[in-house]
Amino acid sequence: MDSLPLWLLAVIFVVAAAVIWFAGIQLSKTTDVLDSRLHLGSALGGLIVLAVATNLPEIAITVSAAASGSIDVAAGNILGGIALQTVVIAIIDAFGKRGKDVKPITYRAASLTLVLEAVVVIAVLAVVIAGSQLPSGLLFARLTPDVVLIAAIWIVGLFLVRHASKGLPWHEDGAAPDTVAQHPDPDKDDGDTTTKMSTAKAAAIFTISAVATLVAGVVLEQSGEVASSQLGLSGVLFGATILALATSLPEISTGLQAVRQGNDNLAVSDIFGGNAFLPVLFLVATVIGGKAVLPQANASDIYLTALAALLTVVYVVGLIFRPKRHVWGMGIDSLVVIVLYLLGTAGLVAITVA
Questions:
Q1: Could you tell me where the beta strands, DSSP code E, fall in the chain?
Q2: How much is the pLDDT for 116?
């Protein structure tokens, strides 16, 4: 693609983004069916099934970047993606359900399991920061202690969420007491064609949508990287902003669709599940590249990691206190997240320019 003109690269980029958007909608619809049929639950389904599927573009980008030695693009996309995907909750909050009597998403998604998922995200990000301070020589069998610990925390998090979905020693049932149930019956005829869909058909559509997301993600990364070099953007700034936004399209489309289906827990769980999973890709990058990744992290990478952790903490507070008030069409916590992200992006620009 290096020889293609900028306008054609832009067209390819937009088409790939559109494919990811529509595939994301199908992923959300079929995940909702599979969660119910396989008895996964919204939180666990979002943490594993939907989170991994919607992060297929990031997987493709990480593999491609690590193989070509572009570690800065991979790191910027992963860490910048976590911060931006957290902001996706605010987008879903603002545009998912509208109306005078509609409560913010952190009020409707009343589940302590989601708080647990957010804690896993913060734990993984803490290891990322710690791993950046390790010497690069701690490499054995193409692995480093930091990326192994990140993967271990993610796996332990899956077990904890699975255990929490069966019940916690707290009074919580996964739904706000004054809202409708969040777990639709897959066999109930309510006019939605997805509820009539067979499990085999749902699995087939899910697989096709996942493959489409993966292929479009590769095209997105290649066209975007060439375009950014022609525009003179740095790898870190491009990966953390434009590329991170484009690869967050699956989370936006699936989140909006999940909320419209009445499954707020799935929408939030998809974001936290994806954010916990993304740092696991550093293990993939380390194995493919054959060298320690996190010790090569620069100031902007650590900055993005801290920003992502801060935004996650805001939503942890929101899920615990469950604000009812809307401000500009969203919850107070979502507004705080947007303001912090804009300020954080301004700081990132200052770091990369300095």
A1: 326-327, 330-331
A2: 94
Per-residue pLDDT reduced to its tens digit, 156-184: 998 898 888 777 776 555 555 555 444 44
pLDDT tens profile 276-314: 999 999 999 899 888 888 988 888 889 989 999 999 999
- Candidates 348, 238, 274; CA nearest to 87 is 274
The token duo for 311 is 């935004």
Could you tell me the two tokens for 255? 């989140």
User: Do residues 136 and 291 touch, judged by C-beta distance below 8 A?
Assistant: yes
- Residue pair 221/243 in contact (Cβ under 8 Å)? The answer is yes
What separation in angstroms does the CA of 264 have from each of 54, 109, 247, 255? 17, 5, 21, 8
Q: How far apart are CA 262 and CA 180, in angstroms?
A: 8
* Gyration radius from the chain CA atoms: 20
Mean pLDDT of the 205-211 span: 90
Q: Which of 37, 3, 44 lies closest to 230, judged by CA?
A: 3
Q: Which residues, 6+ apart, have CB-to-CB distance to 125 below 8 Å? A: 82, 279, 305, 306, 308, 309, 312
3-state SS record for 312-353: HHHHHHHHHHCCCCEECCEEHHHHHHHHHHHHHHHHHHHHHH
- Residue count (the chain): 354
Q: Taken in order 159, 297, 243, 16, is the CA torsion positive or negative?
A: negative
Counts of helices then strands in the chain (DSSP H, E): 16, 2
Backbone angles phi, psi at 140, to 5 degrees: -140, 125
